[in-house]
Amino acid sequence: LDIRITINEEKTLSMPDTEAVKPILERHKDRLSYKQDLWSFDLTQVVSPEQERVPANPYALGPPKTTPAVTTHELEVEVVQPETWLAERAKVAANKPNSFHEITHIFLGNLRALAKRAI
Q1: pTM for this predicted structure
Q2: Pairing relation of β-strands 70-79 and 39-48?
Q3: Is residue 49 within 8 Å of residue 66, measured between CB atoms?
Q4: What contacts 88, CB < 8 A, 6 or more positions away?
Q5: In this structure, are residues 114 and 75 in contact, taking their beta carbons and an 8 Å threshold?
Q6: Which tens digit of pLDDT belongs to each residue from 26-71?
Q7: Cβ-Cβ contacts under 8 Å for 93 (sequence gap 6 or more)
Q8: Long-range own/partner contacts, residues 90-94 (CB < 8 A, 24 or more apart)
Q9: Whether 42 contacts 78, CB under 8 Å
């Protein structure tokens, strides 16, 4: 089981011209999402179909090498109201009553519970 905690800021980008640039990797995603309180949960099944690899040696003989199809599962737990968490963190810094540790404990508890069920 692989667990990673990352902090990201998501920005909307325009899609590249797929006619001009051929994708290197193909992945098919099937996602189930739901929200609860401050959290968003995304469970995704990712299927990477069998793909032909670019040969390291362009003069190699024989059939092209392929990478076998792979299916993986990803779980993303996201804070959908980061301003609430950050406001509580600011209260900690100002020595004011806060819920920062409780919110953090709930977040980590969600991760532990989901990881335990995954095993």
Answers
A1: 0.60
A2: antiparallel
A3: no
A4: 98, 99, 100, 103
A5: yes
A6: 788 999 998 988 888 888 888 887 766 666 666 666 666 677 788 8
A7: none
A8: none
A9: yes
